[in-house]
Write a structure and sequence with these properties.
By secondary structure, the protein is α+β, with helices and mostly antiparallel strands. Among the domains are: 118 residues; 128 residues, no CATH class; 92 residues, Chitinase A, domain 3; 105 residues, Roll (Chitinase A, domain 3), CATH 3.10.50.40. Strands 5, 14, 15, 16 and 17 form a five-stranded antiparallel beta sheet that branches. Strands 19-3-21-20 form a four-stranded antiparallel beta sheet. Strands 6-13-8-7 form a four-stranded antiparallel beta sheet. Helix 4 crosses helix 5, helix 5 packs across helix 9 and helix 10 crosses helix 24. The chain starts with a helix and ends with a helix.
């Protein structure tokens, strides 16, 4: 918010307020930070299996990746972008090292091994190009490209970068930069695809195993069974002992292996809210803006809105019912130039000035034949000149104007790749939703008119298909001034926080002072040193850096952190080292599982005398019958029970089995009929299916394209020495 952005300078005033005793506390933290990290190689982000990742090269990649967003990134988004680049870089280095080691890549001179240019370009010009290539040239993974389109793209860059036409030269340079970014990332895609192909092609399922797989998936036993749910034992009757917890932990401890150190905090915060004086001052300010809007010339209004408000001037046409209830009726009643307000709504003051009035259709319908040219926005691979595009568009307009039925035939001339599929139709669109030039042409023209409109994407031959009846609309200038706190109000909260942090320097003092002051202590979750922040605190990366500072110990109290509308003081409460977590750290998590085991033991004693499935009613259950194979996913009425299903699929007939502990309860069953092996078995199909399942585990998938099984063990076994924490 504009007002919050002005609240920044505070330290000098606060130190005077709090006194010289607190100055020592503040300066102590400063001197401590100045002396840290002297032993860090400031030109090294990381060492990956002994290979250095330089700071300058990494920073360049971060910057290039950020440029793709085409907008300034928030602090949180910027850090997420940095971590994305780190993961991409780490992956590229590890994969390249592995492929060089096994001979899939060969270094050239002193350079790192890479995919050869011949191999790279053969994928670009392939008859069946990689889906990433398709996406680059069409913007759609399911699009279609031809080799002449690709050639046209490169020809335009080669010609355009030296063009005397500034617009064409600028467009060519932009395409060249986009291609450079894509080329680097696509080399990594090809490299990893090559490695994954090697693994997939090496997989083979012998016929003997294929036959076993066939039997497991095609032979079903008819099984009668019942399960006694753990829920029939109350929690009060299933009290787990320390020995129970220890036994479960010893059996499953490898499941609790932490790959990196984590830490957690408690924190208290002082939320800064506007004081009564702040509200009075803001009201006086909005009254001044009201008077300024009343006397301003029309051309000055947008400047005033953009200068003083928390919003930008919006010149869109709006319909009745779309404005605030405080002004909606009045805005369509009063004359152009009238200033409405001020009024308070949604924690802000507002004023409005009526700019224009008109009658316009709310929705319109039109179709387009797009004729683009080299240099137009999105015109990749098109070499047509702007003059030629205008001439062609005019020619198409004249033909369609004389014969409307020719429109569909001439869609073949359209540079919209989906023109034939959509028949060139925009469909119905809201007034103002389309490009302004097209929107205005449809507003001004009549149904059935054929017009040529120039936009940033080229020349559009527009056929106005339909539009709704006109309704009253207005343009209105709005000033929104949030009701925010002043510098003075912020300083008051900040001074309380810095005094609290200076006086209470231990966890015990922190806890006592919080309770005595009525401050709510928030308990944070465990985070790692590269976490973007603490849950509940936006843009809190600095808190994480303090938590993992080499001189921060359990029980230490933080400095005061400023989060614009609140100030925070934290205490480090716990650390979890890398490796297998101790029992106490996982005790709460495993409690339901341990209690289930205790209940299983109690149930097992109660069911010791079961010798018939007819006894199911004694345990609030009933007998069910199902066909069970190894491929069966779940038991009817009980859900997934893999251990029970595997026993049912392999057991002998006519014998009661149980009690067997599952995830939901204890089970008894009897195989009524053993399935028969099918007369014919397609072992080749089983081999192909098994290979396909294996490949799906190796190749990237759409849900998580970076989490492939082929790469995971390489990263896990890599020797990575990261300095990321000290730079970001």
């Amino acid at each position: 918010m504009a007002a919050i952005g002005k609240i920044r300078e505070k330290s000098g005033l606060l130190l005077v307020i709090i006194g010289l005793a607190l100055a020592a506390f503040v300066l102590g933290d400063l001197f401590k930070n100045l002396g840290q990290n002297n032993n860090i190689d400031r030109d090294k982000i990381a060492l990956i299996n002994g290979e250095k990742v330089g700071v300058q090269d990494f920073s360049r990649k971060v910057s290039l990746q950020a440029d793709r967003y085409n907008e300034p990134l928030s602090t949180e988004k910027s850090y997420e972008n940095t971590i994305d680049v780190w993961n991409i870089t780490k992956r590229e280095v590890i994969m390249r090292q592995q492929m060089t080691k096994i001979g899939l890549l060969v270094p050239v001179g002193s350079s790192n091994a890479q995919i050869s240019m011949d191999e790279f370009m053969s994928n670009i010009y392939s008859v069946t190009p990689n889906r990433e290539v398709i996406r680059f040239f069409t913007g759609d993974y399911n699009g279609q490209i031809a080799q002449d389109q690709v050639k046209g793209f490169f020809d335009f860059i080669e010609r355009g970068v030296n063009s005397e036409n500034a617009e064409e030269r600028s467009q060519a340079m932009e395409y060249k930069q986009q291609w450079g970014l894509f080329k680097n990332s696509f080399k990594d895609v090809l490299m990893e695809t090559k490695y994954n192909n090697l693994i997939v092609k090496a997989y083979y399922l012998p016929k003997a195993l294929a036959e076993m797989d066939f039997i497991d998936n095609n032979v079903s036993n008819q099984v009668a069974y019942f399960g006694a749910s753990y829920n029939i034992i109350s929690d009060e009757d299933a009290v787990a002992t320390d020995a129970d917890y220890q036994a479960y932990y010893d059996e499953h401890k490898n499941e609790f292996n932490a790959e990196m150190e984590s830490r957690k905090i408690d924190y208290v915060s002082w939320i800064v809210r506007p004081s009564n004086k702040d509200v009075v001052d803001l009201r006086s300010q909005i009254d001044e803006y009201y008077n300024e809007m009343k006397v301003a010339e029309r051309r000055e209004v947008s400047y005033i809105v953009n200068r003083v408000g928390d919003n930008r001037y919006d010149s869109s046409w709006v319909s009745k019912g779309s404005l605030s209830v405080y002004i909606d009726s009045a805005a369509f009643t009063y004359e152009v130039g009238t200033v409405l307000g001020p009024w308070e709504e949604n924690s802000a003051y507002h004023i409005a000035r009526i700019m224009s009035k008109d009658s316009r259709p709310d929705s319109l319908k039109a179709s387009q034949i797009l004729i683009s040219y080299a240099g137009a926005y999105g015109a990749q691979g098109i070499t047509r000149t702007k003059i030629g595009a205008r001439a062609l568009a005019d020619s198409i307009r004249d033909v369609v104007a004389n014969d409307d039925s020719s429109f569909e035939t001439l869609l073949l001339k359209s540079d919209d790749p989906k023109a034939v599929e959509t028949k060139g139709e925009f469909g119905w669109f809201k007034d103002g939703a389309m490009l302004a030039e097209i929107n205005d042409a449809c507003i001004d023209g009549s149904i059935g008119d054929i017009v040529v409109v120039e936009t940033t994407i080229g020349y559009s031959v527009i056929r106005i298909d339909d539009k709704l009846e006109k309704t009253p609309k207005i343009k209105i200038a709005l000033i929104d001034l949030p009701i925010v706190f002043s510098q003075e109000t912020f300083n008051e909260s900040y001074s309380k926080a810095i005094k609290f942090a200076a006086v209470n320097r231990t966890y015990e003092a922190f806890d006592t002072a919080s309770a005595n002051s009525g401050l709510n202590v928030i308990k944070g979750e465990f985070v790692s040193e590269l976490s973007g922040g603490v849950t509940g605190l936006r843009n809190s990366r600095d808190v994480v850096k303090w938590m993992f500072d080499a001189e921060t110990n359990v029980g230490d109290i933080s400095k005061v952190f400023d989060f614009e509308d609140r100030v925070v003081v934290a205490v480090l409460t716990e650390t979890r080292p890398e490796g297998i977590l101790p029992l106490e750290d996982v005790k709460e998590y495993i409690a339901p599982l341990v209690i289930a085991k205790v209940k299983a033991s109690i149930l097992k004693e109660k069911m010791a005398n079961v010798n018939s499935l007819e006894q199911a009613s004694e345990f609030n259950a009933q007998v069910d019958t199902s066909l069970i194979a190894f491929s069966t996913y779940s038991l009817q009425k009980y859900g997934p029970e893999p251990r029970i299903i595997s026993r049912m699929a392999s057991a002998d007939a006519d014998k009661i089995e149980g009690p067997i502990a599952g995830d939901q309860g204890l089970y008894y069953f009897k195989v009524l009929d053993k399935g028969q092996i099918p007369a014919s078995n397609d072992l080749q199909y089983m081999q192909q299916r098994s290979a396909s399942v294996f490949a799906q585990k190796v190749y990237p998938n759409q849900r998580n394209p970076k989490a492939t099984n082929a790469y995971t063990p390489l990263e896990k076994n890599a020797d990575i020495e990261s300095n990321m924490f000290f730079f970001y």
